[in-house]
Amino acid sequence: MTFRLFDTHCHLTWHTEEDPIGDRISRAKDAGIRRLLTVGVDLESSLQCAKLAKEHSEVSASVGIHPNDLGDGSDLQSKFADLSTLAKNQDFCAIGETGLDFFREWCPPPIQKSGFEFHLRLGRELELPVIIHCRDAGQAVLEVLRGTNSTVNGVMHCYSESPELVQAFLDLGLHISFAGNLTYPKSSPLREAASLVPSDRLLIETDAPFLSPQPKRGKRNEPAYIVHTLSCLAEVRGETVEALAKTTYKNSEALFGQNKQSN
């Protein structure tokens, strides 16, 4: 049995030579996925995402510069200007992914913070939700978000922080999304976090090609595998898969718009 699903975070522009995008979309549709949000990590990939969204009715696109891709800061203002122009001249449904990543040392934290703040301002200006990446940076992300002095329209993508921080992100107005790492044997704290999110703030994603769910570990992740995360999330929350599929699809459309509904 298949369900009506929405993969709210994947990277369809990756590995296109080894696995054509059309094939992945076809497999996703066979698995019940009716919408996919392909996420930009820099200006080039964001433009590619916009192109895909024009070519495939199931696909929506986001525009952003990942915190690890902001560089050394020498051309930061130029990147911001180009990002703003691109966001205003293409059909995107979200800003990001943006945020903070202190797991790797590819970009200094002050530059990451500047990039994060710019994306938040751009999201407010264009009235688009913001996709937030957070890795080993929960408190720092909260500090930036609280500095906006307003609620934030967006999602904590691929939630990986502690259960104790869930309420703080909810209080800011954010949705919380879970990916394949929810299914890993050592992810008990993450499953606890998933049990705390109110039904109307809950999303699911793959973050493909990363974080293949446990039954597909060792394989490159793809949108079709979202059914494994859905099943795990339903078990964690004591809900039926059918009910959770409906809930997460409704929430995803409410956040990212309903202009690309599929039959």
Describe the structure.
The protein is of the alpha/beta class. It has one domain: Alpha-Beta Barrel (TIM Barrel). Helix content is 41%, strand content 16%. It has nine helices and eight strands. Strands 1-2-3-4-5-6-7-8 form an eight-stranded parallel β-sheet. Helix 4 links the parallel strand 4 and strand 5. Helix 3 runs parallel beside helix 4. The radius of gyration is 17 Å and the shape is globular. The model has no long low-confidence stretch (mean pLDDT 95).
| Helix and strand sequence | EHEHEHEHEHEHEHEHH
Question: Which stretches are low in confidence, meaning pLDDT under 50 for 5 or more residues running?
Answer: none
Helical content (DSSP H or I, runs of 4+): 40-55%
CATH class, named Alpha Beta
User: Given the structure, what is the number of helices?
Assistant: 9
When the domains are counted, the total is 1
Q: How many angstroms separate the termini?
A: 16 Å
The biggest sheet amounts to:
8 strands, parallel
Morphology call: globular
- CATH third-tier fold name: TIM Barrel
